[in-house]
Specification:
The protein contains 10 helices and 14 strands. A 6-stranded mixed sheet has the order 8-4-1-2-3-14. It binds adenosine-5'-triphosphate (ATP) and magnesium ion. Adenosine-5'-triphosphate (ATP) binds next to helix 6 and helix 7.
Length: 362
Amino acid sequence: MQIFSLFSSRKRCLGLDIGTTGVKMVELKKEGNTPVLVNYAISYDSGSLLQSSSLEILDGQTKEIVFNIIKNAKFKAKRVVVGIPGFLALISFMEIPEMPRSEIDQAVRFEANKYIPTPINEVSLGWEIIGSFQDKPMEGGRFMKQQQKLQIMVVSVPNSAVTKLSNITKETGLSQIAMEVENFAAVRCLIGNDKGTFMIVNIGAKATDFTVVSDGIVQVTRSIAVGGAEISRSLASGLGIDLERADKLKKSSQINLIDPRDKMSSLVSPVIGMIADEIKRLREIYHKKNPIKKIDKLIFSGGTSKLASLLDFFTQELSIECQMGSSLARIAVDSKHREIVEKVAPELTVAIGLALRGIDEV
Ligand SMILES: Nc1ncnc2c1ncn2[C@@H]1O[C@H](COP(=O)(O)OP(=O)(O)OP(=O)(O)O)[C@@H](O)[C@H]1O
Ligand SMILES: [Mg+2]
């Protein structure tokens, strides 16, 4: 009996995304080979923030919200994959000589000392081999000794963040099976193994995360402290209205970012402009390093990507195909809930990606 319950519970997994202004949780259940969304909850707390101004995770409040979500929304699964905010993670790439797998960890730690600004014992390190190659020929047609090298992606996260997130799940009675930086969860949810080179732009409340991914492998990540909260603030101060009204106005479909005479658009455009500038900058850096692989399109997610005319604006401004990510493409949703879930799908991208990892590991 025990074994059976263990087995069946492995078919379910929660994804927990702690954003700057809200907590999002989804529960996926594997039916045959299909992950099915069986439950989700979004809890926004407009009065207070879950991360301080320095974007540090505040565990006290968050714990309470997670606890209430589990209780009120009646989530069944205990297994959970927890997201690590992109701005807390440092993702770097390194090359090391080919060596037995058992020795890689030590070599990565040694190399990481050079890349990571904080002392190595204050961060949790994760790594993955993303490719291998031979030394290139030197100028003049001579060849160096052909040594196989490994390309490694290293993810480092402050121990303090890992501990806080672990405490939240432990004290709310969940069983944490993995932690993952949000960018990777977004890739799993939106791109999976699709071929091509894309940039995911996840515009949340306080931060915007950028992820360049080529043939399923993350190439560049970046996070800036700009998002929907800033847009609401600009509207409130520019129109002399309170934040609550500004927030409603923002979510109505009245903004036309394409029209420079649009009053709201002119108030919001400095914020959107910062996101556009960052995309241009990252695109340039990526194309310089990878002249053959051009970024095919931008894929948007996060609540703020629902801003009216946002996709049209970026398409025009950046002369690149822009599309809304389809967070539900890799999962099934009961048809009677589909309409509601579709409305919040951009906000659920990360949570879905996290839960998908949990059921993929079955
Ligand atoms: N229809 C809409 N139009 C414009 N903005 C919207 C709309 N719906 C929600 N938003 C905004 O989306 C933001 C919330 O998105 P999301 O849940 O992705 O953020 P978060 O994950 O909490 O924040 P972060 O990723 O920065 O930590 C809020 O700023 C909210 O006002
Ligand atoms: Mg978010």
